[in-house]
Amino acid sequence: QEQRGLVAEVAEGEAELARLRRVEGAQLAQQDRSSQLEKEVAMLREKIHHLDDMLKSQQRKVRQMIEQLQNSKAVIQAKDSVIQELKERVSYLEAENLEMHDRIEHL
């Protein structure tokens, strides 16, 4: 009978040990998963940082392009004004030239 009690105690001890091993295994699995998730989070943060840097760089480039475009528009407008003035001057000179031809013909 004492042997049966000891056998029962051994069985209970083995069952408890198996249960503890399962719990410990689950905890190790959770730790592994936690570690894996921490690595993924760190990697994603690094990607976000990289993308943020790229975005800032692109924004700077876009601002520079807009500034260049505005400068080009200003230059074009200035040249258009000069062209318009020259056209008006040519028209005036052509009219003056025509008037002189008419005077010469009358003489």
Write out key terms for the chains shown.
coiled coil, 107 residues, rod-shaped, Tuftelin_GRINL1A/MYZAP/CCD68, mainly alpha, TUFT1 protein
Total strands: the figure is 0
The poorly predicted ranges are none
Mean pLDDT over all positions = 93
> Which strand-content bin applies to the residues?
under 5%
Shape: rod-shaped
InterPro entries: Tuftelin_GRINL1A/MYZAP/CCD68
Organism: Serilophus lunatus (silver-breasted broadbill)
Protein name: TUFT1 protein
Keywords: Coiled coil
Please outline what is shown here:
The N and C termini lie far apart (155 Å). With 107 residues, this protein is mostly helical. It is built from one helix and no strands.
What does this protein look like?
The protein is mainly alpha-helical and 107 residues long. It contains 1 helix and no strands. The protein is rod-shaped and about 155 Å long. The termini are far apart. The model has no long low-confidence stretch (mean pLDDT 93).
What is the topological layout?
Elements: H1 2-106
InterPro entries: Tuftelin_GRINL1A/MYZAP/CCD68
GO cellular component, one term: I band
Coiled coil: 34-103
